[in-house]
Amino acid sequence: MANDIRSAIDFYERHPISAGIIKAKLMAARGSLENVAPGDLFPHDQDHYGGLAANDALAERAQIGPGSRVADFCAGLGGPARYLAHRYGADVTGIELTPARVRGAAELTRLVGLGHRVRVIEGNVMAVPLPDESVEAVVSQEALLHVPDKARTLSEAHRILRRGGRLAFSDWVAHRPLSPADAELMWAGMAATNLYDIASYTKLVAAAGFTIIAVDDLTTDWAEILKVRLSMYQKLRGETLAAGTASGHDAFYESYVRFVELVSDGILGGARFVAVKP
Ligand SMILES: C[S@@+](CC[C@H](N)C(=O)[O-])C[C@H]1O[C@@H](n2cnc3c(N)ncnc32)[C@H](O)[C@@H]1O
After folding, report:
1. What sections of 89-130 are H helices per DSSP?
2. What is the CA radius of gyration of the chain?
3. Please, what are the domains in the chain?
């Protein structure tokens, strides 16, 4: 298990999108980092499929509104957390394993002046550093694929939620078992571990004490999004190769190409789960 966590950290320590790169893009586009608004970051800081609409889908289903206390599991650079604070007036605590992501989230949150409503703290979602019954909603965008013990993570969500509080998250699912070679590739290139089919995942959520409200299969949407992203990525990669500059990390590229195939073949996919703590 320690190994599983290490792999996710290694993957995200080397991730091509960082706070530094986002700031460099903003500098190039605006010529300065003065008066950067949260909306200026949103095209760059969302590390999940479906962008801001995917956050709206979670926010609406988790009934997030002004003053809602929200925990964002696996918060990354804090993109969804800042969006929920800015758009819905929520008070959001992100839990994030990778120290570089925690530092990057703090930098970006400070840059747009949302520090009074957003904090991303270093922690593991399998042992969440928040008190019992301290939030009204737990959200997570496409990240539990990295977490080896999802049952423990779901119990942690249940523990920190108040009664009547909601859990809404998206994650990878495996509609059919992966071949050993594909499982190894997803692990080596994308730090994906212990994937479930939708029915088993739903049972896991219920077993943590939740009442299920809705489960949506997002696989068809993801297949479309991924096709477009892959062709953009390939174009960029072609340009950097032609320019003789670093082309990014190959284990990731190889597994990403295979991931897109697996999703378009309906073997892997995505799902959104919404549940309430009774
Ligand atoms: C695909 S990114 C998603 C980030 C964010 N949810 C977003 O949509 O922008 C997954 C994140 O999960 C974090 N992570 C992986 N395992 C974790 C764990 N056990 N506890 C907390 N965070 C974890 C990674 O460091 C990474 O930042």
Report:
1. 99-111
2. 18
3. 2-171+192-218+270-276 (3.40.50.150)
Burial 184-194 (b: 16+ CB within 10 A, else e): ebbbebbbbbb
* Ligand 1 surroundings by CB, under 6 angstroms: 5, 8, 12, 46-48, 74-76, 79-80, 95-98, 101, 124-126, 141-143, 146-147
* Structure-block tokens of residue 31: 């010529």
Assessment of whether the complete model's pTM goes beyond 0.85: yes
pLDDT digits (tens, 9 = 90+) for 79-101: 999 999 999 999 999 999 999 99
Could you give phi then psi for residue 165, rounded to 5 degrees?
-75, 155
Phi-psi region of 64 (alpha: psi -120 to 50; beta: other; left: phi over 0): beta
Cβ–Cβ under 8 Å, residues 130 and 160: yes
Among the listed residues 86, 81, 67, the one whose alpha carbon sits nearest the alpha carbon of residue 135: 67
